[in-house]
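Progress note, project year one: complex with 1-deoxynojirimycin.
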Amino acid sequence: MGFKKDFVWGAATSSYQIEGAYNEDGRGMSIWDVYSHEPVKVFGNHTGDTACEHYHRFKEDVALMKKIGIKAYRFSVSWSRIIPDGTGAVNEKGIAFYSELINELKENNIEPYITLFHWDLPYELHKRGGWMNPDSVKWFADYAALVVARFSDRVTNFITFNEPQCFIGLGYYKAEHAPGLRHPVRDVFEMSHNVLKAHGAAVIAMRKSARQNIKIGYAPTGTAAIPVSESAEDIAAARKLMFECPALENWTWNVSWWSDPVVLGHYPEEGLRKYKDYLPEITEEDMRLINQPIDFYGQNIYQGVYVKAGENGEPEVVEHTAGYAKTAIQWPVTPECLRWGPQFLYERYRLPIYITENGMSAHDVISLDGNVHDPNRIDFLARHLEQLEKAADGGTDVAGYFQWSLMDNYEWACGYSERFGLIYVDYETQQRIIKDSGYWYKTWIENHS
Ligand code: NOJ
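Model obtained:
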């Protein structure tokens, strides 16, 4: 069977991680601008002020995409670049940037996939309470409507939120990402409820402002649970673990809490029970708002945990063996996550699945011959795509795969110390070099299109 004929082979980035030009052409500040400028928040005090200078070099970058042969490019819009205060006046220069980028992509036959929110909340909205403010639902819906009104003449695929687990969990609960806060858990649940409502309100607003039929998706994340064997017991245990609601201190690392409301229209029972003392008021009307029909389900999948059926069939995590394979950022290499992750998600949500991100950071360097040799990434890709193909063969409706990332970029709290790209970026000179894995991916795409 293999991958579908029209399978979407792409690569992904996000605005703050690559654009730079943080104070040019009327762009407003985001929480990441403010956070990264504070001492000792980010590795090496790195900021996204310049990043990959993609704002000025987007034509060169699209030419590189073309050279690698990707069919689709997933990027995010910086909210404060197009609405500097988050609400109100529109910055036409910001709109013009994305408009030109889209034109360049279309001219090169690369399909744009727009993510509306990849973590860079306008700082002015943060000052008004950010996601704690119930008005955030409308702020986001209005912003989403604007993006769709301006770009849906040429763009038909939109994604609302990227990894709410991370921007809420790491940003407002664990103080590891902007805005670097540790809110009481009750507030964190309230924010998450507002984010889900904002998703639903945005879907309604986007359909209204669309200039043609558009497809809307969502891109949460989660660790995939991998059964250690094909036995029915191990598979059932893994499935259970994948959707389990973790203990309070880790509750944001949760697949079902963030996705069941969106696709199934209700929070998971287990979570409602476990977290009941900390939840805001949740009305039926809220649930109807959150549960808007969407067209595809995206999931960012980087790793998995191995699971077996323990006592009474309960899931038991199987530790990695000594000396197990890991990436530069220390994440375990677990290729089967791309088989079981999508399979379990498809069983539960019954929507076409995109792997909206998958990839690895490696210790890439420019070799004496001037090239960037990254055999580890080639091996990683080959192993993961082989497993993804197994998911497709097993009947999971896999629609596309986006490699993270198109190019090395600002890895949030790790600054520029982690390299995830198919393209190497020298941050001193802004020189780009396609890595061996980029050429490997090109051949892969040619053989699977
Ligand atoms: C998920 C995030 O969406 C992206 O911004 C980040 O760079 C990658 N994972 C790698 O950590």
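The pocket of 1-deoxynojirimycin is lined by residues 14, 17, 162-163, 300, 357, 404, 411, 420 (CB under 6 Å).
The chain has a mean pLDDT of 98.
No further modelling is planned for this target in the current period.
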